Amino acid sequence: MNKLEKIINLAEKRGFIYKSSEIYGGLKGFYDFGHLGVLLKNNIKKLWLKDILSMGNIFLIESTIIGPRVLYEASGHLENFYDRLVECKNCHNRFREDHLLEGEYGEIEIKDNKALCPLCKGELTEARNFNLMFKTYIGPVEELASEGYLRPETAQGIFVNFKNVINSMRAKLPFGIAQIGKAFRNEITPKNFIFRIREFEQMEIEFFVNPEEDEKWFKFWLEKRLNWYIKTLGISKENIIPYELPKEELAHYSKKTVDIKYKFPFGEGEIEGIANRTDYDLKRHMEYSKEDLFYFDQEKKEKIIPYVIEPSAGVERIFFALLCEAYDEDEVPNEKGELEKRTVLRFKSYFAPIQVAVFPLLSNRKELVEKSKKIYETLSKDFSVVYDSSGSIGRRYRRQDEIGTPFCITVDFQTLEDETVTIRDRDTTQQIRININEIESYLKEKLKICNS
Ligand code: GAP
Fold first, then answer.
1. What is the DSSP letter of 187?
2. Whose CA is nearest to atom 4 of ligand 1?
3. Protein residue whose Cα sits closest to atom 21 of ligand 1
4. Domain final residue, candidates 322, 342, 375
5. Separation of alpha carbons 153 and 185, rounded Å
C-alpha cells in the first residue's frame, strides 16, 4: 500500500469517513463523516471562526442552500460555471477536456485527426459545456419559473444579504460577512478520495473594502490565511504553496486569484482560493434585482460599490491535508520493551478529535474502573475524552495513536494509594505521574491553541 492508500484505509477503518450509501454500492463523489470525522471537522471550523471573529469586523450568516434561478443568472453561474466535457463514443466514460490536455490520463492517442479515449481507445466526442450546478424544482410544478439550484459556492447567499447585514449590524467598510456551509458541484470526474467531491463544505469570507484599497486587503488576507495554515494548523511550510492563477484560469468574477495549495501524496492541490471579486457580484445583483446595493461612504459623502476580497476554503480538503500531514509510522517499545511498528496521527493536540483517553489498568478491578470512570466524567466537561478498558494497555495506546489522541491517562494500583495517575504523551511515548487534581491544569496548558 502507498501512503495515500494507507491514509484512506485508516480514515475508513477508524470511523473518520465512510463511503456514502455504501450498502447500495456507494455514491460516487459523496462521503459521510463518522464520529471522529465530525469532531475533526468541527475543530477545523472552530479554529477558522476563532481566527476571523477576533478581527471584530466580520459578521456571520447562514443562508439557504437552494436559491432561485434568477440568483444564478445574476451571479453568472448559469452562463459561466461549466467544465468542458468529452465523452467516449464506445465506453461512454466522460472526461474533463482540461484534464486530458494536462496529461492526467497519459499521452492522448490521435487517429485520423481524432483524439482517442485513454481507457478503451474509442473515439471521443467534441468537447461541450457541462454546467456543474445541481438543478431542482421548488414546489410541485416543474417549469422554468420554479427552477432552483443547489448553491455551487456559499458566497451568493452573502451578496444577496449585503444590505441586510449593513442595516442590522451597522457595518462600516472594511468589513466581512462569513459563512460556513455546504456547496454542491456535479463534478464530471470526482476523484482523489475527498479532494474532488460533489457535496462539500466551504468556509468563505466576503470582505468588503473601498475599491482604492483592494490590493492592500488582498495582501493582508493572503498573509493571514497562509499564517493560519502554517502556525495554527501546524502544516509545514514546505507543503503549503501559494500559486497565482494566470489570467486564462481566472473565474468569471475574478480580477486576481492566488490559490493556496497543499502537497498531497497525489500531487499539489488547491485547499483555498483568495480572489479579488471586485464589484462584480454586487453590481450584477443590483442589475438583476433592481435593488439599491450601494454603500454610503460617510466620510466622502458619496455612494460607492465596494470591492470584495474573498478567502474561500474547503473544509474537506483541509481535513484531508491534516490527515496527510499528521500520518506517520514509527517504532515504539511495547510492554516487553521490544520495538514494535505503530501508525500514529500527529495532530496538534488542540484540534485532535479526541484529546484524552482514560484507562483503568485492569478492566476487572472494580476500584480501578470506578476511579477511571470518575476521572473520565470530570474531564468530559472540558475536554474531548474517551474511556477504554478493553485489551492490553499496549493495544489501547496503539488504538489511540492511530486516531491521534495526544494524551492517555492510566489509573493503576498506585493511584489507589496516592491519588496519582500516569499521563502518556503520544509523540514521545514518555509517561509522567501526576496527582489527579493536577490533571485538568496540566491538560489545559498542553492544549492551548498555538498561533505563533
Ligand atoms: N466562492 C469561491 C469559490 O467557490 P473555488 O476555488 O471554486 O472558489 C473554493 O472553491 C474552495 O472550495 C476550494 O479551494 C476547495 O477547497 C473547495 N472546493 C471546491 N470544489 C470542491 C470539490 N469539488 N470538492 C471539494 N472541495 C472543493
1. -
2. 153
3. 196
4. 322
5. 9
Q: Find, among 47, 17, 44, the residue nearest to 322 by Cα.
A: 44
235-249 pLDDT, tens digit per residue, is: 999 999 999 999 999
Which CATH number characterizes residue 395's domain? 3.40.50.800
d(C-alpha 317, C-alpha 262), whole Å: 9
Q: What is the residue-averaged pLDDT of the chain?
A: 96
Q: Is residue 265 included in any domain, yes or no?
A: yes
Are 298 and 352 within one domain? no
Please name the amino acid found at residue 365: R
Q: What is the pTM of this model?
A: 0.96
202 lines ligand 1 (CB under 6 A): yes
Show the CA angle centred on residue 352, arms to residues 446 and 198, nearest 5°: 155
In the chain, % of residues over pLDDT 90: 94
Task: Tell whether 123 is covered by a domain.
Answer: no
For the chain, the domain total comes to 2
Are residue 317 and residue 352 in the same domain, yes or no? no
The reply to whether 201 falls in a domain is yes
Domain range for 360: 334-447
**Pair 418, 369 in one domain:** yes
Residue 350's nearest CA partner among 51, 47, 49, 52 is 47
Number of H helices, E strands in the chain: 14, 26
State in Å: Cα 184 to ligand 1 middle.
10
For ligand 1, mutation pick of 77, 134, 153, 180 (most atoms within 8 Å of CB): 153
Q: Are residues 341 and 306 in the same domain?
A: no
SS3 124: strand
Residues 171 and 43 in one domain: yes
The pLDDT of residue 409 is 98
- Please work out whether the CB of residue 197 comes within 6 Å of at least one atom of ligand 1: yes
- Classify strands 175-184 and 110-111 as parallel, antiparallel or unpaired: unpaired
Report the atom number in ligand 1 closest to the C-alpha of 198.
23
Question: 333 CB contacts (<8 Å, ≥6 apart)?
Answer: 339, 340, 429
pLDDT digits (tens, 9 = 90+) for 319-371: 999 999 999 999 998 888 899 999 999 999 999 999 999 999 999 999 999 99
Residue 85 domain flag: no
Domain edge (last residue) among 276, 294, 322:
322
User: Which pLDDT does position 430 carry in this prediction?
Assistant: 94
